[in-house]
Amino acid sequence: MKLLTHNMLTSKFMKGVVKGYPLGIVASEVKEVAVDYNPDFVCRMIPKLEWGSLCSAADSIGKLGDLPKELPENIESNQDFLKKVHHLLMEVEVISGNLICPETGRKFPINNGIPNMLLNEDEV
Amino acid sequence: MSEILVFFTQTNILEFKLPELKTLAKLSSVPLTLNENSHDKKNPFLVLDLQSEDDAKRLMKRTVLMRSMYELWASAKTHDDLYSQLAKCPHHLKAQYVQRPDGTFRVKVDAFGKKLQDPDRQDRLDKILGILPFEGKVKLNNPDQSFHLLELYGQAGSKTPDKPLRVYFGRWLMDGQRDQIRHYHLQKRQYIGNTSMDSCLSLLMANQAMVTENALVCDPFVGTGSLLVAAAGCGAYVTGTDIDYNVLHGKGKSSRYNQIWKGPDENIRSNLRQYGLEHCYLDVMQADFSKCIWREQPLFDAIITDPPYGIRESTRKIGSDKNNLVNHEHLQNHVPSCTKYGLTDIFRDLLNFAAKFLKKGGKLVYWLPVYTPEYTVDNIPQHPCLELVANSEQPLSVHVSRRLITMRKHLDYEEARESELQATVSDDHYTESFRYRYFHSAGVPEQKAKADARDEQDPLDRERKVQS
Ligand SMILES: C[S@@+](CC[C@H](N)C(=O)[O-])C[C@H]1O[C@@H](n2cnc3c(N)ncnc32)[C@H](O)[C@@H]1O
């Protein structure tokens, strides 16, 4: 699971959960893969991100580096910054671990990089 | 202005030709006026007025349904008429293409709906070369210019008339993307399943969805990811969900004839890798579509999907009628039990999902199975935020077909108006008896149809397996 995807996921679909966001990450295996850098795509994704959640997610798996806690201005021309965001969004992958609902503590396991967001029949 | 002749491929999706053409015109900003009602969908030829040759070529860049395009020099009911038109061929064309001793050329004669004999062919060639004395060298392979006499004799199956319905003469401009269909063909695909979508239809869906570079595309019923492969082929970044662990993880039984279990690299990601598109892979997740896992925002540029029909593979969602409590200690290995997820609900959920998650202007493209004797447009689900762009039929058997629906999000979704902004169907096509009729009409005897409907085994699926 990439951090880009993580930024878009919630557990709001669970009964009684109000926001379900952001999901916590407890990773047991994290991998870095090389993905072609595409500044246009990164620029398209940035407005769709919850910046604070990206920072805390990156931090929780030890990949925050020197990413600014506030989204800087004029990012389009800031290649240095875009490359960092590209790396975080596209190249860092949680291979195994759990996503955790912030309200209920319900764990959603990640195996082989694929999160399992299914509930059980007694939860729906 | 130039008159352009389009020659379409022969398929069972004739209704898709004009929608694709219109979409590609929008996608490549080519001004196009079409008189749709005057076009007989069975006619493989269509004449367009375009502003330039360049516009024509732009239309061909992504087409899977147009085979070739020609600059039209003459078109007539009879050969004699055609020849006399060619005799009056404008000077600038002659100067540019006929009086060109330095160039190479060829003239081809092709007939549709009739087999031409060699002497007939030669006779036509001689006539044409008499009228247009090309000065260049003949070159059959890859000449500078290729000229075509195209004769239409009506549709295959009907009795061949002696005289053609229409004859055309033109200069070849460009072919469509048939090589893309071959490139992505399922026969060579790393990972396939029973319901993988063939490459032509997948590419067509990506075209209908106007998928372009750097788009974000989602398939909520992703299966083996055929639709994502096509979208990534257009330069999009892709993501998807499926309820089935084995489908996503490439575990369990193989769908290939000569193989029992899926191999280690049979998954969606390796399908993309196979075509050098792994950089477009974002993620796939195991999720039940009736429970939305995404943070609400206009996120996707396109949603393209082939929902479960409850016919070929079971439509299910997580739930239980019994009150069986699950011991959470054993969660890791627990496979949740599923309840029926009706087709009407699936499509309603799909439209609601699209209304929330598509960017304004984004497209939803999906298949709707129908029992043709009872189908009406009122069966198409609607949503206040979505407008219907195209609705084309692919016949599957005498009484069964599926329709490719293209919708465009034209209104923003507002949470505050949630109660008004809901998908509706004015006439539900999927009543209890749909499944029975669907099976029954697919040419399966009554007893067997009832059993199939119970077992959720698709008669068409068997048919497809035999074909492939
Ligand atoms: C027609 S197949 C899609 C095939 C896909 N286009 C491909 O190329 O392989 C439908 C898929 O929907 C999945 N599915 C069924 N019910 C679902 C649900 N409630 N939520 C999500 N996926 C579901 C099935 O597991 C199946 O893979």
From TrEMBL, chain A:
Coiled coil: none
SUPFAM superfamilies: Trm112p-like
Domain of life per record: Eukaryota
Gene3D superfamilies: 2.20.25.10
Stored Pfam families: Trm112p
CDD domains for this protein: Trm112-like
Transmembrane segments: none
Annotated family: Belongs to the TRM112 family.
Protein's recorded name: Multifunctional methyltransferase subunit TRM112-like protein
This protein's encoding gene: LOC106809997
UniProtKB/TrEMBL annotation, chain B:
Function per UniProt: Catalytic subunit of the TRMT11-TRM112 methyltransferase complex, that specifically mediates the S-adenosyl-L-methionine-dependent N(2)-methylation of guanosine nucleotide at position 10 (m2G10) in tRNAs. This is one of the major tRNA (guanine-N(2))-methyltransferases.
Region Disordered, residue ranges: 444-468
tRNA processing found in the keyword field: yes
The protein's name: tRNA (guanine(10)-N(2))-methyltransferase TRMT11
Organism: Priapulus caudatus (Priapulid worm)
UniProt entry keywords in alphabetical sequence: Cytoplasm, Methyltransferase, RNA-binding, S-adenosyl-L-methionine, Transferase, tRNA processing, tRNA-binding
Gene responsible for this protein: LOC106804998
Any Pfam family the entry gives: UPF0020
Domain of life: Eukaryota
InterPro entries (UniProt xref): DNA_methylase_N6_adenine_CS (IPR002052), RlmKL-like_Mtase (IPR000241), SAM-dependent_MTases_sf (IPR029063), TRMT11 (IPR016691), TRMT11_N (IPR059073)
Subunit structure as annotated in this protein's UniProt entry: Part of the heterodimeric TRMT11-TRM112 methyltransferase complex; this complex forms an active tRNA methyltransferase, where TRMT112 acts as an activator of the catalytic subunit TRMT11.
EC identifiers of the protein: 2.1.1.214
Major localization listed first in the record, in broad terms: cytoplasm
Annotated Ribosomal RNA large subunit methyltransferase K/L-like methyltransferase domain residues: 188-316
Chain ranges of the tRNA (guanine(10)-N(2))-methyltransferase TRMT11 N-terminal domain: 3-178
Subcellular locations according to the entry: Cytoplasm
Reactions accelerated catalytically: guanosine(10) in tRNA + S-adenosyl-L-methionine = N(2)-methylguanosine(10) in tRNA + S-adenosyl-L-homocysteine + H(+)
